[in-house]
């Protein structure tokens, strides 16, 4: 029962913050959760961590971009979120997963050189089944590296960032939707770009709070990097819980992907082709527009099996320009060009709602496995607590004692 009480704390604090700032309507969420879709695994612990009922989740969220909206979150990089300030419910869920032996007890890696790959202690094989590091190209069953044959699954990392506005402009022209693996702390700084991406129907996924090499992070640090990013997406999209995350630098292993899956229900997505477009604006540049063009030409005129998941970024106008240049090549070579999360999520890019962008492939697979009727969903929602919002001091409840 103690755990149950603590589980309500993050929502309580959000509701109370809103009660003090509910006239800050500088921003609006155009799309609310549709009803009655609620179709992630009903017994998954994420249900308890990010609750919602139906037809909405019963919570009035602070307006995106308002002071009350941004107040509950930890600072951005370079410091990673303080593990002493993690909501107790997340920590309890992690401890439960550890007790179930669902989180492998393996060594952390360390960053030995700037820009290099993290390394494990001597005697630990990163390609062993126990560790299976994606940095070392070890693939774990259930993680996603490839798209379906004939498809390009579009995604962009690191937003919202300097290239987001130009990317969205182009996507609007093309009537094209994509997945954004967003950095949680960046959403704080660019709420308008975040909302523009969401409101146009793009899929929002997790790219951590401060963008570390995740295999270097302790279990609690991994919890914070993922949890805070899920929380801000949840609180900024009318209650959606993202379904996918991409580890920064593609650095994940058996431990970090297990925390993502077992605590938060997140599936790990890597990629099978890398443009290195992040390095276009480095000094000196790591790659050039011409090199990316040549790579794209090769990939897009090559075999269509497997389909392509190409690592691209919305970091700068230059990285976006490389995508803009490649887009007609994707189309002219007969690829099906779709949002990555829609493609690999069987039309469901969130764990608890239909897509906010409409059907991309086939609508009939939507929620086929475990739709729970809307009438039963509120049993998981502490609606009384969530709606009360009367305790102005409950903001402190986010600072949970460990
Ligand atoms: Zn990144």
Q: Which residues sit in consecutive blocks of at least 5 with pLDDT less than 50?
A: 1-40, 52-56, 357-402
Order of helices and strands: HHHHHEHEHHEHEHEEHEHEHH
User: Could you give a short account of the major beta sheet?
Assistant: 4 strands, parallel
> Which structural class best describes the helix and strand composition?
alpha/beta
Shape: globular
- Structure ligands: zinc ion
Report the CATH superfamily. Answer: Glycoside hydrolase/deacetylase
User: Please, how many helices?
Assistant: 14
Q: How many discrete structural domains?
A: 1
According to CATH, what is the class?
Alpha Beta
Count of β-strands: 8
GO biological process, one term: fungal-type cell wall biogenesis
Cofactor: Co(2+)
Catalytic activity: [(1->4)-N-acetyl-beta-D-glucosaminyl](n) + n H2O = chitosan + n acetate
Subcellular location: Cell membrane
Walkthrough of the structure:
Helices cover 33% and strands 7% of the residues. It has 14 helices and eight strands. A four-stranded parallel beta sheet has the order 3-2-1-8. Helix 10 links the parallel strand 4 (244-245) and strand 5. Zinc ion (ZN) is lined by residues 157-158, 207, 211, 248. GO terms for molecular function: chitin deacetylase activity. Its EC number is 3.5.1.41. It is found in: Cell membrane. Residues 150-338 form the NodB homology domain.
